[in-house]
């Protein structure tokens, strides 16, 4: 039986071999087929050995497939998981060697899928570069229409689409309102793409009769135009219709607009910025997605740099609320930890500026920033839904929150101040009893349970909680010392 199956795998086309192999695996592990055969230990070990041979064979076949890779993986994975479940559930301790062979075979499937993904990513990047290079001439011809229509890079980047609206309204043909809105949505995408292509290709820039460097320099000098331009990029960054290479170039243009900008307090009404904030917030969320989902490390680094710089460019009066909204709307513990670290940087900068000035309004603003930061700490260490945070799943944001709390304590203790009210007796006792001690109890219980388990997962949990426990004890020491010597 095994020989016949092996021949089938090697004599059919690669795609057919995957389907046949998976079908045979399901056939072999069907209780109605081999249930009686697994009554003895020898037969059980032999059956598991058959599974191992087939899984190894499928891993090799997957690598030889020349097309429809994703479809083949979707066929293989459910079958492999089902076979593993049956084999491990029906085996005993005497089948250890056979199960180890089957596990190795399963790992070979994972290795094959990893290699396939790497090949696909390489092919995708190569194709994207080729498409971009071959499309430059076509885009250049389209860009020749921009000056004819009275459109400029500056107007497109700052969201000034009145020219397009005028063109549509001057038409003698009645335009359906719904169709007009669809047209406007596409125009917003095209506005950003037109400028991005000016960055990609000198031919496109020349065809549009533009000098992008001068346009970007002009936008950098006007904070409102700069925020509008950043908000315009949301159409490209958040869409799934554009390849990573376009988003990478989009990041380049965005960074060129905010690199070297010195954040300063916005002079004007909050209503002016509030009108821009929704688009800016959407751009920030799109940047977060790129940080988590981009396949290339350089692009993820660009996204991280853009996130920090865009946040720092937001007026101080709105910056904390923006960060809090990003934290609240994020379902990634790693991203929450990064955002809390940015909050900590904001507290540091604000404290430094506070030390350089004697302006009472500045000190009041510093107090507000620090108090709000403590609200973030409480949100993480004592979640709104109640109870201590979930560990070890949320060890990263918990560690960042503890570091932020310790940082605020040290600032106030060193400066012999209490702007944030963090050193008041009520605040200290609340932090001790509601944040720190429940967390200590939780970590102690998890580590005690881990001591009874001797497996790799327990070691990983211990490693994840070790830095959390270290900073937690430092916070407890500071709080206890402050309570003894108010």
UniProtKB/TrEMBL annotation:
A GO term, aspect molecular function: ubiquitin-protein transferase inhibitor activity
InterPro entries, per the entry: Glomulin/ALF4, YAP-bd/ALF4/Glomulin
Superkingdom of origin: Eukaryota
Cellular component terms (Gene Ontology): cytoplasm
PANTHER family: GLOMULIN (PTHR15430)
Entry protein name: Aberrant root formation protein 4
Organism: Dendrobium catenatum
Gene name as annotated: ALF4
């Amino acid at each position: 039986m095994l020989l016949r199956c092996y021949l089938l795998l090697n004599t059919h086309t690669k795609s057919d071999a995957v389907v046949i192999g998976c079908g045979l695996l399901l056939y072999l592990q069907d209780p109605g087929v081999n249930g009686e055969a697994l009554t003895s230990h020898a037969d059980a070990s032999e059956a598991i050995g058959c599974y191992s041979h087939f899984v190894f064979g499928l891993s090799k076949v997957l690598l030889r497939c020349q097309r429809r890779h994703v479809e083949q993986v979707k066929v293989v994975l459910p079958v492999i998981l089902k076979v593993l479940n049956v084999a491990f559930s029906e085996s005993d301790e005497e089948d250890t060697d056979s199960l180890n062979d089957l596990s190795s075979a399963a790992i070979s499937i994972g290795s094959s899928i990893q290699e396939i993904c790497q090949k696909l990513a390489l092919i995708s990047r190569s194709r994207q570069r080729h498409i971009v290079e071959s499309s430059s001439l076509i885009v250049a011809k389209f860009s020749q229409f921009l000056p004819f229509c009275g459109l400029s890079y500056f107007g497109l980047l700052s969201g000034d689409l009145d020219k397009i609206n005028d063109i549509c309204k001057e038409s003698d043909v009645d335009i359906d309102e719904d169709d007009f809105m669809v047209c406007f949505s596409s125009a917003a995408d095209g506005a950003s793409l037109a400028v991005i292509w000016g960055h990609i290709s000198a031919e496109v820039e020349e065809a549009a009769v533009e000098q992008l460097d001068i346009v970007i320099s002009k936008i950098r000098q006007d904070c409102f135009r700069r925020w509008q331009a950043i908000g315009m990029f949301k159409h490209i960054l958040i869409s799934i219709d554009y390849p990573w290479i376009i988003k990478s170039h989009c990041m380049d243009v965005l960074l060129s607009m905010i690199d070297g900008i010195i954040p300063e307090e916005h002079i004007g009404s909050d209503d002016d910025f509030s009108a821009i904030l929704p688009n800016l917030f959407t751009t920030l969320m799109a940047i977060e997605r790129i940080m988590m989902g981009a396949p290339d490390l350089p692009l993820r680094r660009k996204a991280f740099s853009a996130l920090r710089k865009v946040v720092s460019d937001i007026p101080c009066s709105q910056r904390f609320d923006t960060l809090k909204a990003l934290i609240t709307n994020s379902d990634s513990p790693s991203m929450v930890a990064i955002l809390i670290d940015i909050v900590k940087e904001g507290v540091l900068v604000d404290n430094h500026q506070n030390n350089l000035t004697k302006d009472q309004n500045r000190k009041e603003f510093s107090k507000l920033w620090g108090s709000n930061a403590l609200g973030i700490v409480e949100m993480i260490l004592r979640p709104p839904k109640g109870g201590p945070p979930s560990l070890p799943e949320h060890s990263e944001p918990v560690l960042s929150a503890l570091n932020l709390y310790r940082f605020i304590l040290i600032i106030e203790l060193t400066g012999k101040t209490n702007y944030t009210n963090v050193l008041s007796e009520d605040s200290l006792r609340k932090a001790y009893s509601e944040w720190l001690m429940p967390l200590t109890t939780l970590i102690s219980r998890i580590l005690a349970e881990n001591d009874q388990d001797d497996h790799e997962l327990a070691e990983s949990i211990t490693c994840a909680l070790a830095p959390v426990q270290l900073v937690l004890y430092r916070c407890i020491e500071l709080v206890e010392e402050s309570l003894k010597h108010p």
